[in-house]
């Protein structure tokens, strides 16, 4: 089913849509949304690359961190135990077809059988097509899969983790004018989707900017991700004891809403090309709805503030490169094996850590709840956020 006619019909019924409402349909509608209509959107044959697509090493390194979390939680005197829990929830949000979970479990089973025995895997994925592909992807780990569904479990004792989730959530788009803040809506003109400025749809948008200490200058455009705060709220409430680990594009609020990003960060990815679309109106995200990714950078400041208000302690925020180096990336890169497989592994490692690539553009946020503030392995080296 084509997405554009459905959006045009929706606008004719309801009037112009906020960018958030438009993105919710274009990306997540169960019948014709971009993410809902395919089991996988990344990799060479997809529209963009993630750290998962460079090979199993990313999952192997995360498995080390999760095992460390499992053992670190037992060291908190307030936990009432001095040995790791027999069961440890691994909850992957935006789990897609289960490839990252498979890489994590493969590594845990091979490298740390004791930790593997404790794992209870929960896959959270809104796309029915992706959920259907998880069974085959996780063949051999069936006994570890505790649940697969569209919502986070109600009570998590372990770790909730997500790789590139928040940047794909629907955002409100705003622009500052001489007359005050205006929201950008999606409307129809001559059969085409166009942007139209209007009064903010909610007072929450101005409250968000005020809470972040942001004052947009006239002419500046920005995105406000209320959905990310709602997701963080759900995750922190679901996490009864353990950790929250998020990896995403993002900046602190003072940079995200600065002159360096005066045009905003909203962009698209289709066939590995960013921001293709109509140069005339500068809104590529209105092209090909349902057939391309739409993304924006994450406000790390607001994520941290929301998590802390809900009882989560911030353990660290850093570039992915430094996080993976602390988990043993360098020792794997230094492996002297000259086989073809080893060469591919070293190329993958370079992809994960090269400046300007996945290593520096992706930020890692780690929070803890009910386990004290342990010194985690991934935070034991340089903790730097560029």
Task: Please describe what this structure looks like.
This protein has 386 residues and is an alpha/beta fold. It has one domain: Rossmann fold. 35% of the residues lie in helices and 24% in strands. The chain contains 14 helices and 16 strands. It has helices spanning 3-14, 19-28, 57-74, 99-111, 113-118, 128-137, 204-211, 226-238, 253-256, 300-309, 320-326, 329-333, 340-353, 358-361, and strands at residues 17-18, 88-93, 119-124, 145-149, 156-163, 172-177, 180-189, 192-198, 221-224, 239-251, 267-270, 273-274, 293-295, 298-299, 313-319, 362-369. The strands form three sheets. Strands 2, 3, 4, 5, 10, 14, 15 and 16 form an eight-stranded mixed β-sheet that branches. A hairpin with a 2-residue loop joins strand 11 and strand 12 (273-274). The longest helix has 18 residues, at 57-74. Residues 39-48, 77-81 and 276-280 have low confidence and may be disordered.
